[in-house]
Amino acid sequence: MSSTFGSHFSISTWGESHGAGVGVVIDGCPPGIRLTREMIQRALDRRRPGQSDIVTPRNEADAVEILSGVLEDVTLGTPIALSVRNKDQRSSAYDEMQHTYRPSHADYCYDEKYGIRAWAGGGRASARETIGRVAAGAVAQAVVQTLCPGVEVLAWVQQVHTIVCPVVPEEVDAAVVESNIVRTADAESAEAMAEAIRAARSAGDSLGGVVACTVRGCPVGLGDPVFDKLEATLAHAMMSIPACKGFEVGSGFAAPRYKGSEHNDAFYMDGERVRTRTNRSGGIQGGISNGEDINMRLAFKPTATLMLVQDTVNDAHEEVQLRGKGRHDACVLPRAVPVVEAMAWLVLCDHLLHQRAIARR
Amino acid sequence: MSSTFGSHFSISTWGESHGAGVGVVIDGCPPGIRLTREMIQRALDRRRPGQSDIVTPRNEADAVEILSGVLEDVTLGTPIALSVRNKDQRSSAYDEMQHTYRPSHADYCYDEKYGIRAWAGGGRASARETIGRVAAGAVAQAVVQTLCPGVEVLAWVQQVHTIVCPVVPEEVDAAVVESNIVRTADAESAEAMAEAIRAARSAGDSLGGVVACTVRGCPVGLGDPVFDKLEATLAHAMMSIPACKGFEVGSGFAAPRYKGSEHNDAFYMDGERVRTRTNRSGGIQGGISNGEDINMRLAFKPTATLMLVQDTVNDAHEEVQLRGKGRHDACVLPRAVPVVEAMAWLVLCDHLLHQRAIARR
Amino acid sequence: MSSTFGSHFSISTWGESHGAGVGVVIDGCPPGIRLTREMIQRALDRRRPGQSDIVTPRNEADAVEILSGVLEDVTLGTPIALSVRNKDQRSSAYDEMQHTYRPSHADYCYDEKYGIRAWAGGGRASARETIGRVAAGAVAQAVVQTLCPGVEVLAWVQQVHTIVCPVVPEEVDAAVVESNIVRTADAESAEAMAEAIRAARSAGDSLGGVVACTVRGCPVGLGDPVFDKLEATLAHAMMSIPACKGFEVGSGFAAPRYKGSEHNDAFYMDGERVRTRTNRSGGIQGGISNGEDINMRLAFKPTATLMLVQDTVNDAHEEVQLRGKGRHDACVLPRAVPVVEAMAWLVLCDHLLHQRAIARR
Amino acid sequence: MSSTFGSHFSISTWGESHGAGVGVVIDGCPPGIRLTREMIQRALDRRRPGQSDIVTPRNEADAVEILSGVLEDVTLGTPIALSVRNKDQRSSAYDEMQHTYRPSHADYCYDEKYGIRAWAGGGRASARETIGRVAAGAVAQAVVQTLCPGVEVLAWVQQVHTIVCPVVPEEVDAAVVESNIVRTADAESAEAMAEAIRAARSAGDSLGGVVACTVRGCPVGLGDPVFDKLEATLAHAMMSIPACKGFEVGSGFAAPRYKGSEHNDAFYMDGERVRTRTNRSGGIQGGISNGEDINMRLAFKPTATLMLVQDTVNDAHEEVQLRGKGRHDACVLPRAVPVVEAMAWLVLCDHLLHQRAIARR
User: Fold this and answer.
1) Domains of chain B: which residue ranges?
2) Measuring CA to CA, which residue among A327, A348, A345 is closest to residue A49?
3) By CA distance, what is B356's nearest residue in C?
4) Which residues contact A195 (CB under 8 A, 6 or more apart)?
5) Contacts with D354 from chain A: Cβ below 8 Å
6) Angle at B13 between CA B12 and CA B17, to 5 degrees
7) Could you tell me which chain A residue has the CA closest to the CA of D28?
8) How far apart are CA B125 and CA B105, in angstroms?
9) ipTM score here?
10) Which residues of chain C does B7 touch, with a Cβ-Cβ cutoff of 8 Å?
11) Where are the beta strands (DSSP E) in chain A?
12) Nearest-CA residue of chain C relative to B352?
């Protein structure tokens, strides 16, 4: 089902870029979890446009309203409906999009699949769709951290174009990430990346990159072997984020460089706790969390919207040229960080509830 | 749900390595599709052990039985149950596995998650579990190729350890892939790869690599935007294959190297058909197939089973050493190829049925 | 999942009686279906309180807003979010409900299940929850009648307390049903039923009854044999309506009175069409529609809310007395009619989309 | 999905009457539950044909094999595959069924829906399909009784044709039910019912009836309000049993006879326990179990297979006569009893696992 995600903690997002608003309904949230509007709004504020000079200038407060499922800041166990009204709808800026297919955008495919398309601002394919994910992710975070204190999810921009942040996952500090507008893990990289993004924007061009994400303090035993392995559901979640082109966990695409004798993570006892000396497994073995940090990396393509002339075709199947207009987000990665974290929380929450269902205790 | 995959064409696999057998039930297969036992057996023969000197010598015919859902080589629309009996169960060779956790295997995590484990041969975490996938994949292939003639799925070993096959996806020939025991795309790479695998096996060590997969002739319009994007469900499917550590589509992890102006795929008219001049999108835009080849790459870690002494712990949480015994598969990639293809067919079939449900016609 | 219904045409309802509002998100609606706000509002107007002197006086316009998924009165194929704001929230009238369990209401069970409860107005257990069903049902109706013209769903009040409307299903006329405030099938019954309801209300008491529902023009072939038989999913749908205590199809609970030779529906040819001479099967055989009218009956208990003194316990587990206050709906049946129809449309739509997915054509 | 039932404890049944066999795969069974082959076989023995002179003489041992998911009589948490081979396949006796539609059977609808049909013995529509339900029900029972000791499910034949067993649900004794071949609740009724069945069989005719089912010791809090109310999922489960035409819970179709003041179940304190003085709710309020007995009744039509001449049509759409041949089960109710119990266990298990997922503790 297109817009529904999760088996136990199940979310359904809705909303087009230039419709009345966007939102999400969460079905399956446990009762008795403390949840305030501010917890959700704080997550949305990290995602919203206009936070700095390197992201899209679309100016939306993205104020969330809790429509149901919460009473006096506590979840009821009933569906939680969250809604954000659209405000800044300058659809005239997008008139060209009505008939011309923007290269590497969803326009053509939507038209072919559905025979109809909410063309203004990208409609359902707009990045605004991720508002529902981030809002639901904040709820998932509250659930996980209540039922299982100590779990932390941390994402950061590890690469923009060719600039790679050298900090290793174990040493990334959330406060540092949040202290710079790129959301990378050290100040020097932040400066270089911001500069590159500004240059790309000035040129009407765009940049991609890599977002890394680590889960710390994950309990052992999350993840369902076979099809719903923890890494498989994380991959599903992450690859569903717009512009994501690749996913890897642990050693990832570097795995083939190792021989088995180099790659295997030897077990040892750390006091009472079974641990591994290395973590090429990325915190998951046999599809199940083993208690080590879960390390992931996601590749993002450069934004498809450009302020440049491009060759394309229109919906009459004529070859035409498209001249970029409207607002331009030269690099989505800083704003992708809270989306990546949200997707991780959603996956963890779903597996945690499942594990509670079957576990002996 | 752990062992169930797919929404419309839904499969449930079952079976432990050393139990009575392994198999799959397919619920949701359309009626009236021609399906013979041979079509399924042929797929399984490509997956079974003992095909050559570079894969595991476990000798199993893996003969499939169709238990239901098919009458006189035509599907009935009712569940198709497929079963393969286990034969070669030398569990004595695995006695050590009962209490000792093999590094980078699922043993420890299973014990922690379930409190019980079918230790012989890896139980449910054994590669034998993929038999159900391959059998079901053959059925999915029959469905897709009947309802939508012209679709082809082709996977091959693109890399073993540091040896990379240079053939580009567009030029890979299925006959060449099937003509060499490594299942790579040219004879020279095949020889080098086979040699590397033999050397690793002699050393009691193991190798990983990369499997590439391309879908040719895919109709426009498959894939559900938002959570069940075509690439997201493919990632889910592929990352659920044992030992898979990374997934990428189109430009994948190379995407960040491009600027937007370099990365965008310009549309043009090829006769009546809308096409793109480049294919960095990998055949998918906005989560929906655009009719170009769907190109994926999967990273596989080196097999965790080694014929070497390794440090580890046992289920009494004592640090011990493990001495590899039993059968040894120094490189799973040749046998992973049909599994990758099967997972691609399953995903395509599921999306195709969904599209038929909603499409105007 | 509690508040989600349907596999292909999947709806998630949300909202408490005295929260911000109630609504529904529909995921899986086909694109290109004509759908106006009025089509949904009209359905809601039939469900809303205050339509006549025999239903609850709670006065709500229940104005629906389409938040997403529709462009210029045509469905986009993306999620359709529908919302109705709560207005008339006199929660002071319900203060007693905060700690006292109303007999035969959900209060006690919610407290035990969730440990928390939106007590005002019944919260999620309020009849206001059915607004989401009726709104989604109007969309399902549009889909079914577009893809499969000629299907009609018609429900009516067949019994109130001991007063039974004698009109047989084949002769029930929608215009007659809508012409009387009870929504029964003839004027004489309507008058007697209305009188009985008024008398019950005057006494602070309440009445139950039977709603009958017939589907005319249903195509042959809807319904999945085994677990999702058409009658099983209809039963699920109908028994999920608040206060529904029984469901029967075709001969129903009268079936045992017949011998097989009396009960079997003989097939015959009606021109080109295979038909049955009798219809004890109720339009469904082997879980699949056979083209005859689908006839169902649903038993509703009398409303649990009374304006009388009742013995009960409170949340401190003390025995107390409850004195009815607030608004009182002495008989829910007239307003249950559009809810029953909505649930029938939802089930039909889900099966129709499934059948399109698997059918040869 | 046709042949899959349950969200957490999910079963997929497979098998045609005259294929290789029938069976079920259970996905989602918790680990660590004691489960022996005998526990499943015992349930199947109560369902199998040939137990007495009043049921079908088809003689099948119906020996179950556990293919996976269980190690040394303990569940592993992995899928449990159960299989029963078909033995007594006298398809020649059914030759006429290949082209002639048996009245009130599924033949015609299968042909229209699927365009193909396993005609021998009714194929998937055969009562043999219920073997998978009963086998899975035995596993569900083991899970529920392990996680929640004290729950009991008891079904019995309450009516055959016009003969009604007068024992009230609270006084039905499992030992008495099992001591007579009809599986009714007292010896006198048993004799009368058996006589009626023998007479019907001699006449080539058949009888229907009512099966009652009660759940004792159900914990408070099972059932999901809104769509997956406990009574709604029970109705779904029961109405999916072949030949079931009606379902009611608590007061059921008698509910309308009461006024609200007569129908409401007053709460009182029974020591520490909140109880109701009457139980017209049937143990469920607001869709959630309240700890009282859950009382259900199911109507079954008389078996459609008759040893009499019947008017019908064939697959060439000619009007023809059908002359009953082969084995004849004049009354399915005694064998429906274990099927009804199995469906109740499956529903309870699913809700119990869900409640464990969300409950605070």
Assistant:
1) 4-358
2) A327
3) C357
4) none
5) 8, 357
6) 165
7) A358
8) 8
9) 0.97
10) 7
11) 4-5, 10-15, 21-27, 64-66, 70-71, 74-75, 80-85, 152-160, 163-164, 209-216, 244-249, 267-270, 273-276, 284-285, 288-289, 294-300, 309-313, 319-323
12) C357
A344 versus B17: the higher-pLDDT residue is A344
The pLDDT, as a whole number, for residue C52 is 83
Q: Are B301 and A255 in contact (CB under 8 A)?
A: yes
* Per-residue pLDDT band at C92 (split at 50, 70, 90): low
The two three-digit tokens of residue C202, written as one number: 């005057």
Do A2 and A107 form a contact (C-beta atoms < 8 A)?
Answer: no
| Spatial separation of the C-alpha atoms in residues D54 and D70, rounded to whole Å | 36
> Which of A187-201, B64-78, B119-133 shows the lowest mean pLDDT across its residues?
B119-133
Instruction: Give me the residue from D32, D225, D354 closest to A357, CB to CB.
Output: D354
Tell me which residue in B28, B357, B360 faces C353 most closely, judged by beta carbons: B357
Shortest Cα distance from A345 to chain C (angstroms)? 20
Minimal CA separation from C356 to chain B, in Å:
5
Placement of tokens 């078909």 in the chain: D86
How far is Cα C119 from Cα C18, in angstroms, rounded to an integer?
A: 9
| Total-model pTM | 0.97
The tokens of B16 are what? 């432990």
Instruction: Give the CA dihedral D46, D51, D53, D54, nearest 10 degrees.
Output: 20
Question: Long-range contact list for B169-178, CB < 8 A, 24+ apart?
Answer: B169/B212, B169/B214, B169/B293, B169/B295, B170/B293, B172/B212, B172/B214, B177/B337
Q: Say what angle helices C230-239 and D230-239 make with each other, to 10 degrees.
A: 160
Integer Cα distance of C177 and C251 in angstroms:
23
Measure the CA–CA gap between D102 and D112, rounded to whole angstroms: 14
Each of the 361 residues of chain A gets a pLDDT tens digit; together they read: 689 999 999 999 999 998 899 999 999 999 999 999 999 999 999 988 778 887 776 667 899 999 999 999 999 999 999 999 998 666 555 677 889 999 999 999 999 999 999 888 888 988 899 999 999 999 999 999 999 999 999 999 999 999 999 999 999 999 999 999 999 999 999 999 999 999 999 999 999 999 999 999 999 999 999 999 999 999 999 999 999 999 999 999 999 999 999 999 999 999 999 999 999 999 999 999 999 999 999 999 999 999 999 999 999 999 999 987 766 789 999 999 999 999 999 999 999 999 999 997 6
| Nearest C-alpha in D relative to C203 | D261
Q: Which residues contact A295 (CB under 8 A, 6 or more apart)?
A: A169, A212, A213, A214, A249, A250, A279, A282, A283
Using DSSP's 3-state secondary structure scheme, residue B288 falls into strand
User: What is the pLDDT, as a whole number, of residue C288?
Assistant: 98
CB atoms within 10 A of CB C311: 14
Min distance B38 CA to chain A CA atoms (Å): 26
A chain contacts of residue D77, beta-carbon cutoff 8 Å: 358
Token match 């690749």: residue?
A: A246
Question: Which pair of structure tokens corresponds to residue C200?
Answer: 């019950």
Helix axis angle for D333-358 and D37-47, nearest 10°, is 140
Nearest residue to A12 via CA among C29, D356, B234, C114: C29
Q: Which residues of A touch C19 (CB under 8 A)?
A: 67-68
By the 8 A CB rule, do B5 and B19 touch?
no
Cβ contact D28–B78 (<8 Å):
no
Kindly write down the DSSP assignment for every residue of D100-166, as one continuous string.
Answer: BPPTTSSHHHHHHHHS----GGGGGGSGGGHHHHHHHHHHHHHHHHHHSTT-EEEEEEEEETTEE--
**Architecture of the structural domain at B4-358:** 4-Layer Sandwich (3.60)
CA B244, CA B332: separation in Å to the nearest integer?
11
| Structure tokens that stand for B264 in this block | 């965008």
Q: Tell me the nearest-neighbour CA distance from B358 into chain A, angstroms.
A: 9
